[in-house]
Amino acid sequence: MKLTLNIYIALMATGLFFSCKKDKADNINKSSLDVLKTSPSNIRLFNFTDFDADMTINNIPLTAYGIKDGTGAAVIGTGNATQLGLQFFPKEAWKAGAGGSPFILPTSLLDKNGRAEIRLLINTKTIDTIIQNNTLQPKDYYLFRKTAQGKDILSYVVLNREANPPAAAENFKVRILNYQQTQDPLGLTGPVTLTYADGTPVHAKLSNIAPNTASEYVELPYGAYQFKLFLSNGSFIDVEKQMTELPVQPDFQSVKPLPQPQQGVIIPVRTYKPGGAYTMLVSAAAMSYQDKYPDGTGDPVRVDFNMNIYRVVADIEPAVNFSFARVQAANAYPGPGLNFMIDGQRIANGLDFGKNSEYYISTRGAHTVSITDASGKKLAEKSLTLYPYDNYTIWATQKKDGSADIVFAAVSMTSAYYETGYGTPSGVSGTDALRKKPYAWSTRFLNLSPDVPLATFTNDHSLFIHYDFYQNLPFSGACNIKSNTIPDVEPFLSYAMGKRTLGISNPAAVGDGSAEKIRVYESTEGRYPELPGKLLASISPLNVKEKFIANKGLYTSASLEPWAEPGIYTVALIGKTVPGAPEGEKARLMVIKHNK
């Protein structure tokens, strides 16, 4: 497709001075050593065009201006890059990337008036403008690619970036920039709304954000979130127009007419850190799909589109978290509701059996955790030492003798695991065997029943299998779990979810594993051939689709539902199995979803 240039300049919105007049740049220090030692300016640039770019700042070339291949990528090794430029762009070009390859101009590249004449060469087209550095208000310069009037064009916009951290140190800020293309093949155009994983809107200020506008920032408590973006109209989100976050692509089927519904999009769990500020940036990006499989040999035919998607951009990189951790309460103690306290501060009030609280942000250090009944009588007390970014569930449990106990369960929000069959360890650390599944159903299993010494959880009537690249073995974290004991080896089972990267998979596609029903057995010490043991038939199995899909209203038909939604979960056996146990105290399986 022929590439033309269309420059969109947000003058009134930003108050930023632009000029196409090519003023002669003032002399500035060109020493690479001096430049690198100076402080950064408040000008940050993002390249979301999918093309590598050449850059000149105040008549100083920073890239090689080398030969480009057919995709617009620079051919490395031309030898034309300056010594100064190589300090910033060692690959001789401003490389395009999913994250926009952000570049912050150093102040020593500005002229004496604090201006930067920026000249960009992108796929044979030139953008030439002047940006004024504002020491009080940071600015972001976004370069986009989109389709307009049937042509593939470039555009840019300059917007204010958040300069102030959140008012509360334990919070983060988030906003939406909606700079979508107006001609989208899937019909993903219009106002957008940010929701939690269950489709609940996050905030009125993050709802119905119109095209070519920016929302205000909203403060939220730091933590693990699975935000989703939907096209919206007033108080309603359109569940058939959910936006994808790169690198996942929109669902496109070449045999179906356009536009095509977008729902059930897989979104990763991400920790938004205390002190940070983030932007949900809606824009177009180039997508490539398999159109058909030709007869005989050869590669499939591909078709390319610019489609609206979104990215998460860090406006303020948070400082190192030295202070904050998160805890939540969960009640596995049969009987009336309980109160949970940390250092005398109540974090859950009258929490019923089988229920859990929201997360409470605490601080690093030693703490006293206690639980009381409705009258205020102390039932149990323990010490807990927290470190930054810890995520703990505080479980109230019952011992065999009927007394109350407290069990602390650390929760990993990363979906990371170690490949058990990974060759020979380096002897230095286990990082060479560490793997992560960002789009995963990640679940741990706990036995918190006072009457079951050892419990084994099964995938229907079969043992759960841990899938990795080297070998597939029964998942030990679901086998022979002792009562009121937290497994410390291989605690989380992670099943990668199917995701659409070529437009040929569907929302219900599975990755490396799946589950339909979860059952629990009373087991005995032994190897895998002796497991799982005796089925606890009085305990209803968990229907995975019922318990691990937050809101079925986000799917217009059962065929579009995944077997489970990705997220961080705990499945716990709680309650009594002894004959005659009161109905409200009988054993059951409890599910907690730890991300929001």
Strand content: 35-45%
Which structural category fits the helices and strands?
A: mainly beta
Poorly predicted runs are 1-33, 422-426, 500-510
- The span between the termini is 42 Å
Mean pLDDT: 84
Largest sheet: 6 strands, antiparallel
Oligomerization category of the chains in this entry = single chain
| Count of the domains | 4
Computed Rg: 27 Å
Count the E strands. Answer: 41
Supply the number of helical segments: 4
Query: So what's the overall shape?
Result: elongated
Name the helicity range.
Answer: under 10%
Task: Give an overview of the whole structure.
With 596 residues, the chain is mainly beta. The chain has four domains: 1-161, no CATH class; 167-319, no CATH class; 324-407, Domain of unknown function DUF5300 (Immunoglobulin-like); 417-593, no CATH class. It has four helices and 41 strands. Strands 31, 32, 35, 37, 38 and 39 form a six-stranded antiparallel beta sheet that branches. A five-stranded mixed beta sheet has the order 1-9-8-2-5. The chain is elongated and about 85 Å long. 41% of the residues are buried. Residues 1-33, 422-426 and 500-510 have low confidence and may be disordered.
